[in-house]
Amino acid sequence: MGKNYIDIENDHGETLRYRKHANGRGLIAHGAKVHPSAIVEAGAYVEPGVQIAAGAHVGRGVWVESDAVIGPDADIAPHAHIGPGAAIGAGAKIGVRTQVGRDARVAVGSLIGDDETIADGERVATDRRGLRLAA
């Protein structure tokens, strides 16, 4: 039986231990909290301090940086990048290869398309079609 964790050295020379999430085999850093019903697919990295709520789905190759929050039933498509301290609201959908900046906020139920960039600190809300709403 193989080990259920992997050690990776970060940019500061520190070794971080990641465990494989039971639901999808994505890598979860020590200090991150992922609900057991959430799916974190293989190839995804979840950094320390992250919180992922019940029913959330984190796709293959996604990088969720430290202290980000992923709300209940949110869907993060493959190869997206969620910046440090960002918050994704309940039921929001983030498209393939989309970049969400540091401390950005995506409102509950928002639909963010593929290959989009949300700037650091930006607050975004959309309707069900993905059209941005006035702040």
Task: Explain what the structure shows.
By secondary structure, the chain is mainly beta. The protein has one domain: UDP N-Acetylglucosamine Acyltransferase, domain 1 (3 Solenoid), CATH 2.160.10. The chain is built from no helices and 19 strands. The strands form three sheets. Strands 1-2-3-6-9-12-15-18 form an eight-stranded mixed sheet, with no helix packed on it. Strands 4-7-10-13-16-19 form a six-stranded parallel sheet, with no helix packed on it. The termini are far apart.
Q: What's the layout of helices and strands?
A:
Blueprint: E1 5-9, E2 15-20, E3 27-29, E4 33-34, E5 39-40, E6 45-46, E7 51-52, E8 57-58, E9 63-64, E10 69-70, E11 75-76, E12 81-82, E13 87-88, E14 93-94, E15 99-100, E16 105-106, E17 111-112, E18 117-118, E19 123-124
Parallel strand pairs: 3-6, 4-7, 5-8, 6-9, 7-10, 8-11, 9-12, 10-13, 11-14, 12-15, 13-16, 14-17, 15-18, 16-19
Antiparallel strand pairs: 1-2, 2-3
